[in-house]
Amino acid sequence: MRIVIRSPTAEGARAARDKLHSAGVQGAVFGVDPFSAPDGEEISLIDATGAARGAAHEIARALAEAPNRPSSIVAGVEWTRPPVAGLARGYGLDAWIPLDAPPALLARHLSAIERASIAQEERARRRATAETLGLEVPERRDRALLKCLYIGAPSRFFLALERTFAAHRGLVTAAFTSFTGFDHLHDEAFEAVVINGVEDTSTAIALCAALRRNAGLHHLPTLVVTRPGDAATEAAAIDRGAAAVATEDAAPEIGLAWLFEAIRRERERRGVERDLASLRERLGDGGTGLWSTPHFEAHLRRLTHDHHATGRDLSLVALKVLPAHGAREPTQSVWRRTFREAATLAGRLIRDADSAAAFGRDLILVALPATALSGARRTSERMAAVGECTAFAGGEGGAPLVFEQSSVELQDGESAAALMARAIAPFMPRGAMA
Q1: List of residues 6+ apart from 400 with CB closer than 8 A
Q2: Least CB-packed of 106, 122, 198, 433 within 10 Å?
């Protein structure tokens, strides 16, 4: 990810860069002009610590209105100075992060923000493609009741949690044992979980880990309450995916403000995910998750145009599906079923923001926005590895398949047609592209 750090002072920018380096995030640069948005910028990290907070609001508004707006505008603040608890964005900001958070948590915040920004930009492009093709896609809104589950022994944090959610027309359900808590999670939908780990730290950590292992609860924002000075439990909770950790003696408003920030971002993630799926169905086949060929080609033209305009990466993966060497040649009807299943599998192995389509009888193309060539190669290798160890129902006897791979990255001035031609060139007979 390309991060530009903006601060009224060089000292503030260097301090923010050092925090990113400690989290393993390399390549962040200082903004020459705090109010400009250079091409290719993905995350604009605004220093809002200390006295810089007042200027941060002005910088965020200017960047939000810039023609080449960054993918995400993020305020970096101290843990003890969070945004106001609520579900609305403010000051043109997409997210707030605590720069003094433990490195693992800071890195996770930035990774999630990067994924969210890629998905949001892709949603806008898909809507534009659908409109160009005359397809109407209604906009959906999340109207779910704000609900939180509290698990653990009663505490003063629970009272603060209940008051804060009530102020936002939300509800809190209390479960005083882990077993009752999981019963609630399976029976009801919640937008956050607070786990009291003061008296039983091992159970709290186990609960936190169990949420991450559950596909339906993996993204559920989780806050763990710990004893003062219990650094081991704090580190373990963060390692197992907690969005925030608050100590029992700290002002509960701080931890709750960060929990609301996590809830807001998760609501946006779910909304974008639903919209991307809906648009994919309108532009392709809902049963397979693949785009129709003409719609894919139209969208790839938009992708190349937008990525040239922003300077961000774009890659294309091509997979040629073949019966394994030495396998019996399948009949036409068997091969059609087999290839359809293989293409469907490939479509399920990519990000929501990626686009896949089947071409001809054996070729799959996948467009990956905001992805460099190295990322495209990792994606193609993963898809091929999974496909080659999968038994397909249409294969009559389970004859294995081979997935030949090709990955290319968009070059300066290159068109969508030229990008496709380079991607499939390795599979063409020698001289056919001349």
Answers
A1: 323, 324, 327, 388
A2: 433
